[in-house]
Task: structure prediction
Amino acid sequence: PLILMEKLSCVFIFLFIYSLLECFDCETTMAPSSRSSNPSRKTYCPTVTYGPSQKPRSTVAPTLYPSKSIPTMLPSLGPSKKSVSPSKSPSVSPSSKFTPTQRPSSSPSRKTVYPTCLPTQKVQPVTASPSKLATLAPSNGQIFDVIVIGAGVSGLTAAKTLQTAGKNLIVLEGRNRIGGRTYSNKTSSFPCDIGANWVHNFDTTKNPILNLATGFGLHLLPFDWSNTPTYNEQGAAVSDAVVNAGDAKINKLIRDAATYANTLDADIPLSTALQHVISSQSLLFNSYEKATLHSTLQDEFGTESDSLSAWWYDATGPWVKKDGIILEGYGALVDNLAKGLPVRLGETVTSIDYSNSFSVVVTTATGKQYQAAKVLVTVPLGVLKKGSLAFHPVLPAVKTAAMNRLGMSLLNHVFLQFPTGSLASLSPSLATIDEFNKIPSTISSNAFGYVEMIPLLHLRQQDVIFIEVSASFAETMESKSDTVIVSEVMKEIHFIYPNLAAPNHFKITRWRQDPFAFGSYSYANVGAQGYNGPTTITTYDILAASIGNNRVFFAGEHTSGAYPATVQGAYESGLREAQKILRN
Result:
């Protein structure tokens, strides 16, 4: 009996200690909830919830096509070559001119050398107990499953997908609005898309943006690039004969330059390849041909050809040379994506600390801290390259090297609103054309592009002319005053329409000076690896790779190997990263 009593005593002591530990663990587990329910914490930074919480029609798709396996850490990879198919290379023709808004497609290469690297072994996510998370709770006391940094298309798409899957998340946005570079300005006397304007790859089987927009009840309008007259320096119409001959000449030049570049063992600037062909063939150009060459290349990619990779400047996934617009503006699509999402505006993230093994701490410019198991970074490439966002530890060298192999282009918009009825009475008529081009009166031996003008009278019944300005033109423009810019544009318009009254309102963008973008969209610099089929590991894929044992993820158009520099690429990258987060 004595031995039995001793054994029973040991059991009772064990159970007593165990019950104490359970109580302690329970108290710790409840701590985060009790803190987060403190009313004073909720008012510290207002959370904006966009619209009703119910799921919108035709929201983001639950799954995406199977993707290649992208290692978390990749060695520094050199680019491989691609071949040029005449039917796939950039082209211009009188019936369907290749314009700055029509990206050329690329073809698979017979010479592709795929990177020799194996995907790293999948790292199981570290599961930290609630008690450990509670000890590192940031000042606002709430722990999230995911923090999404940036309320552009990629961030909102990912957030919507994660929210649908039941994740507790928050979206932090530095601006006082959502949309990022996809934004319709509604504060002026006329609405306009000051960032992304075109729905490229205008095919429902190739671009999910079309189905997404129509699912939200928005209206899509195709754009007719064949209905785009061109005027010379003095404002006279360029003849069909000059257009046809010039288009054929520039088409062949670009094709020959790409063919030459692919014979080399190392990538070179596109300008070098072009100059080689120009010199070897003793080519001379008239003003129309100079403008066409510039508009086909620099205006399309938002930078000069000496910054573009001759191998990969034009590489994309499946592509059709058709474009359109959303009648209500891209802002309407963004507003629908954001419905029901918790978005905190005016919260500029300054640092991301992923130094511990179980969570990530995000700090904003106001000194607030947020903590989550995972963080998705969707800030533009320009912000990453500028170093505005600090990482602790610093980003892996391979990711920094990938950033340096991509550039940030510049494409600015000028919107001129004229008195009601001003455009309808003009001759030649603007009532039925989608665009007209003007060769600048200052064109010289340096190739300048068209002044591309899009009258919104036909598309949106607005007395507005929308002008796109890119590359060196746009860089120079940003240092000028609004008054000077409007005066210079009107000078070119008056060569064609001398009696057109001065605009009564205008809107001008300066994306290089925007501290939340520092440019417009990414492009492939010399040394980049572009898309050459679904198994290629591109420079964009290296930027997309997660870090910190699958705790910090990256999305945005600059992480889309197949569709960089497009809203489609941003949208699909948001889907991709949301699914990666859910898998890990």
